[in-house]
Amino acid sequence: MQTTKQIRRKMIPAVISMVLAVSLLIGCGAGQEQAGVGSVTESTAESSSIDTASEASGTDSSGENSGNEDNSAISDIYVEAIPDLSDNFIRGMDASSVLAEENSGVVYYNFEGEEQDVFQTLAQAGINYIRLRVWNDPYDEEGNGYGGGNNDLATAIELGKRATTYGMKVCIDFHYSDFWADPKRQHAPKAWADMDIDEKSQALYDFTMDSLTQLLDAGVDVGMVQIGNEINNGMSGETEGYAVMQLLDAGSRAVREISKTYGQDIQIAVHYTNIDSDGEIATHAAELAEYGIDYDVFGLSYYPFWDGTNENMQAVAALIQENYGKQVMIAETSYCYTLEDGDGTGNSFASADELVEGYGATVQSQATMIRDICAAANEAGVIGVFYWEGVWIPVGEADYDANFPVWEEYGSGWASSYAADYDPEDAGKYYGGCSWDNQAMFDFDGYPLASLKVFGYLKDGNEAEPAVDYIPDVYYTGNVGSEPALPETVPVIYNNRSLNQEAAVIWNAEQLNSIDTSINGTYEISGVTEDGDSVICHVEIKSINLVTNPSFEEYTDAHAAPGWTVTYVGDENPTDFQVHADDATTGEVSFHFYSAEKDMEFQIEQTIDGLEPGTYQLTVNAQGYDASGDAEAYLFANSNGGEEQTASYTLTGWAEWKTPTIEITLEESGSISFGVHIKCAAQSWGSVDDFALIQLSD
């Protein structure tokens, strides 16, 4: 988040209307909506989907696909080299959906715009490993597929052979389920539903042996096998730790025996997610060690928009390597290149709110994200990265009704209606098309994006002509009654991030003049940079509470809280910052007082500096009991050290909240000091909470 300089509306030149006429021709995207709070005015810049590097990305400036006629001449992306990257580093792609896509009429092209086997294109782009999921029986009693690629063993064999043809190794991802297996669901295959754990373990062993035998006999170059998929909360219908471990042991034994029989080195991987949850991965790793599970690779799902930072990923990888001596891989990752929906279903990554700071919804940002994840993984000793479903694209235009029959017939949507009986809580309610098309590395029409080349560029990098990647949307929060002061510059993010700079911007005067500063409201103001690029400022007008730590939720100890000064008469402090929600109006903390034997006199206060001239309103919530009946309790305030204003209130009982109010006029820029003063008898008690100082007008 970047705070920018501010200018007042009256400073914007009258010529803005002429400049903005040009800006109407330039696309602009949605941004991450996160306005700042805590000062009279605040401006921030967040990642957005605008892409002005059209030639480098293969998309137009709005983030939409620019059309097939230009895809044969897609320019390169900029990639910073990872010079110490091993040649054996896994540059992987999950391509499980390919067959269902092709059966649905999807055609994939190469970088020259010619129709070509997608696996050949992946290999040419630098992919060296293909990951394929396998479900036991993804069909209903009538033979209708559950969707999601209908990934049975036969599908894996066909796709695996094609991958092998182009020199890529294959990772087989056994879900040991008839459909999706992840932390939300780990259903047992239908054929295993009534089995006890011993019978199920034997069935899993047999299924693994038979499947790998068929794959290897077909000539698939299997280099790795996942025994389970994201098994944080169970596996094949089992949730107890000992049962899951028994299943993993059965799968591991099968892989080792097949590996020995065929004389082929096949690594065994386990796979978990939720790597940002404190201690969860450590717990799973310890359990695997406790039960002596034989495996080689600990796989992590790491989606940067869901699963924390690269640094956290590195810390988790270090934990596994250092404590358990296992290799680590990123089993799944991805990032969007647009926020557009390609097939009418909607996307899993649909909102600008999910964009990671520093990365837009552009082709270049997609490539930069994957490069940065690979660099961080390599630095942490991770053996490689698999991109999840970079080939899963729409089967038609963004028309749900037109696409639905295709998804149902060929299984190219994430789920079909036929999966409802097997997975009633999820697929039974939300079946439909692909929710991943905006994170694919092919455009909506099957042409490879320039970002796909990142895998081949990782080691040596790639230079490209300097170009703007995106301009983040700007977010501004202004106080009711104050004139908006939008930033005079905005950050411009380049394909080569070292070239990033600030650009002057002119905002639309007519739109600015339409803002009603007397009431709360939100507005979008368009602007144009000095280079003619469009930008959007999301303006929110609201009453901003200027008080620091207004409800005391941040406190150092029982007698100290940031922003506040407490003074008292006598040698004992009768006050504390108490954690008790019943004595607070919001949150859990309030400023509390009580003395069993001595009378009390104290006050709590704060000073806010740097305020502009204007009218301000001060309020506080207070409640309590006065044992003597003649307590002195009042809210006070003064501006620039002048005459004190007060508003008294009476302590009448528990939870009988009073809200004294003072209106303060600040004649010139300066400060307002305020607080509560209380003088009462022993055995009195009470609390104060939620100070608010807001500007009413300037």
Which key terms come to mind for this protein?
27 strands; globular; alpha/beta; 698 residues; eight-stranded parallel beta barrel
What does this entry look like structurally?
The structure is a single chain. This protein has 698 residues and is α/β, with parallel strands linked by helices. It has 14 helices and 27 strands. An eight-stranded mixed β-sheet has the order 1-2-12-16-15-14-13-11. The longest helix has 22 residues. The two termini are 28 Å apart. 48% of the residues are buried.
Cα shape = globular
Widest sheet: strand ordering: 1-2-12-16-15-14-13-11
Using only C-alpha atoms, the radius of gyration works out to: 31 Å
Number of strands: 27
Distance between the termini: 28 Å
Mean pLDDT reading? 89
Structural class designation: alpha/beta
Counting copies of identical and different chains, the oligomeric state is single chain
- Runs with pLDDT <50, length 5+? 1-41, 47-74
Helix content: 10-25%
Q: How much of the polypeptide forms β-strand, as a percent range?
A: 25-35%
* Major sheet description: 8 strands, mixed
How many helices? The count is: 14
